[in-house]
Amino acid sequence: MHALLLATVLVAAAMTSETRAWQPVSLVVALAVVMVLADVAVVWARRLRVSAGLLVQVTIMALLGPAPAVAIAVASIFVIDAVIYRVGPIRLVMNLTIVAVLGLAGGLLFAALRDAFGIGTDDTVYAALVLPVYVVLAAANLVMVVVGHPYIERADWGRTIKESGLPTLPLELVNAVLATTAVLLWTQRGVDAAVGLLAVLVVIIPLTRSVMDGLKNSDDLVELREVSDARAEEVGRLAADRERLLAEVMDAEERERARLAESLHDGPMQRLIALRQDAAEDDAAATAAMVAGMDEAISETRAVISSLHPATSREIGFEASLRAAIAPFPAARSVQLTVHSTVDDRTLAVALPLRIAQELTVNAVKHARPARIDVVVTRAADQIVLEVNDDGVGIDSSDSSRAVQAGHVGLAMVRRRVEDSGGRFEIETRADGGTRSRVVLPFHDPA
Predict the structure, then answer these.
(1) Any idea which fold 331-447 has?
(2) Which residue(s) pair with 439 in the sheet?
(3) The model scores a pTM over 0.70
């Protein structure tokens, strides 16, 4: 369709051509060269290329007529698009059609205005017609570029015209004034107007380049801000998903702990109690050791149940839950455990702080052979800080794989759970040879 319209416009322009429209030849050549130079300087506004060539084309329309305005513009666009920018054939034909339509319509409009007002191109008042005609043609150019653009949907036409037209409006107004000045120079000095126009372009081309850079940088900032906002939204969504998944995992773990504690209570615990009762009914001397062993097993089983079941942990509190967690281990009998906390039990009873404290305390009892373990819990702003210090043999925290091989699998689990919750985990050997573990967790008010 564009090709057919282009051919029609070229034929119509040829029919309006007059020999005097191409005189003087020096002016035609000068304007053609200047238009090529003007088209080289372009403004990229969003997805549209806005050329400074309309300044020269309007001057040609006003001074020479529709045929030269069409011919020079088509030749200039062909050189620029086909040779310099190497645009595709569809875009090339579209751009050629737009400048041809503008050249024919503008040239005929100037001719009609001259006839209506009875003035000639050498009349000073004629220059006053240039500015309003330029504004009309610039608006028509923008609309045709947007409507004919192959990658702009109909629903985006209005938005694109607004986003591309408003930023270039100051430049187009400057061009309109310069075109008016060029025509005024023609009415006063004839062929010398070409020299004046060239001098004007020496100013307008760097100006166009500056505007182009400014618009491009502005667009880059807008796009960067949009991408940044989208990334921030995505990060927020992923963080929410992570917290939701972590909560689901913790809930599943708590349910499993409750099931295991109930199984221990209803199974082995009941059998141990029954065996103890049976043994107590036999000869006391023969079964004393057996009864004592069973009492110890029952106590340890109760401790395991207390340390596992979430409801029990909430009832007995943070410190008692830690003592219950280490109670099943024989080494715990020689360990002095102290717990100091400035955070209320209701906060610490939630799964993560308690389970991590239990894991670190149990790990120290099992592997460090300490005589003393100190647990300190504090709250700083929106964080809970947990420190577990022991006076045991220490640990090689520089090599996590070696620590796992040595049996410290719990430390790897602690690190994973802390980091998944958005916290930090540090472990190091103290100067006195013991181990210091420090956990920083985000604080979530359970209320």
Answers:
(1) Heat Shock Protein 90 (3.30.565)
(2) 386, 425
(3) no
Residues contacting residue 443 through CB under 8 Å, at least 6 positions apart: 347, 379, 381, 382, 383, 384
Lookup: tokens for 170:
């100051």
**Cβ-count burial 155-186 (b if 16+ within 10 Å, e if not):** eeeeebbebbbebbeebbebbbebbbbbbbbb
Beta bridge partners of 377: 341, 386
> Hey, where are the domains in the chain?
2-230, 331-447
How many residues does the structure list for the chain? Answer: 447
- Considering only 278-287, 331-340, 346-355, which range has the smallest mean pLDDT? 278-287
**441 vs 149: CA distance, rounded Å:** 55
Assigned token pair, 412: 């790897």
**148 close to 142: Cβ distance less than 8 angstroms:** no
Average pLDDT of the chain? 76
Q: Which of 266, 195, 145, 252 is nearest to 30 (CA)?
A: 195
Do 40 and 28 touch, CB atoms closer than 8 A?
no
